[in-house]
Amino acid sequence: MKRKTVSILAVLLVSLTSVASFAAETIKIGALYPMSGRGGLYGQDSEAAIKIALAEVNAKGLPGGRKLEAIVTDDQSKPALAVTLAKRYITEDKVKFLYGVVSSGAALAVTEVSKEYKTIFVGSDHAATDLTANAFQKYYFRVSNNTYQSMAAGAMYMQETKMGGKIAYIGPDYAYGRDQIAELKYSLGKLGVKYEMVGEFWPKLYEPDYTSYITAIIKAKPDVLVSGFWGGDTVAFIKQAKAYGLFDKMKYFHPDGGGNYEVFSTLGAECPEGLIMSARHHNNWPDTKENKDFVQKFHKATGRYPSYAAEGAYAGILVIAEAIRKVGNADDTEALIKAMEGMKIKLPEDPAGFTSYIDPKTHQIVQAQAIGVTVKNDKFPPAKYALGKMKVYAADKIMATEEYIDILTKSKKK
Known about the structure:
The protein is an alpha/beta fold. It folds into two domains: 8-146 and 287-366, Rossmann fold; 148-284 and 368-413, 3-Layer(aba) Sandwich (Rossmann fold), CATH 3.40.50. 45% of the residues lie in helices and 18% in strands. It has helices spanning 2-23, 40-60, 79-93, 104-117, 147-161, 175-191, 211-220, 232-243, 261-267, 289-302, 308-327, 333-340, 402-413; strands at 26-33, 67-74, 97-100, 120-123, 140-142, 165-170, 195-201, 224-227, 251-254, 276-278, 344-345, 356-358, 365-366, 369-376, 385-393. The longest helix is centred in the N-terminal third of the chain and has 22 residues, at 2-23.
């Protein structure tokens, strides 16, 4: 009888120890972002937004008292470095999730690591459609709009405003830039918009001097210049193009990343008026409590207003936390995947009456897109301009069609 009592006490002690360990468990997320150079603000804003989201999630609580923790490392937007860091996160830091990545080139490399190690990769701020199409794999999810959504909305805008005629395109020479013009052409074709391509220009990412491209574009005499830049490249191009009077000679249309707050804050009073742009998040749209609260929380924490990268990074942490709550832990990867497929979650960039959700087939978040024109607005200093005259495109109208995904997949296999 005595031995049985000791045995029961031992079991109780082991159980209590297990519960204490369970309650103290930290779930690690391995985040990769550029933290310096032209893409550095995206990484800095993302890290700040991650901290805001983690504070909210951990205050609300996760099953068993678990806590989320994020490790952020500079991937310099280099695919090879991103791969090395992602593998180190998984094998040494024992992260449960890979996270972030701004450059689509780096993301396409990291998604292969995710697949190899069967580790969920939540993409917060790269946009190449490839990742949810021909390069799709079940451990990958994206919580910001892809380029197809932006370009489909862009094509609809062009149709509505009769922006056909002669078109030229300039964008970075890798998947992100290449996808955009292919998707615009496809979407314009589906809508029956007539146009003539008079030039395509392909500078490298972080190109220091766009002079030769600018002079060639002016010589081509397009009615519309479509731009596929992002971040500091957008700012550099606009500054250099303005000096050549490019914006007086043609319309400038930048439907994916042009209307990012970073562009307006850096250009200040130098921002040209009348540029047509969009972004994956806007400080002044939608005019909802959720968006206002997010923008103010970010400003209070950092002393600056957020770029669109911040909202994506914030959103992804909420998605991960919600999946863990549904499953009850972060160890059952298959159950987490099921929890994220089709998940509905209210985010700062959602207009009134709409809630973001993750498409269960492609793992792409489904969100509305707003396109506007640069107008004077000094409510978010140091910016002197913001987007106004917004046209909003419904989320379900701008998702990549199965036909296009099939076309993209076949073309990439050639």
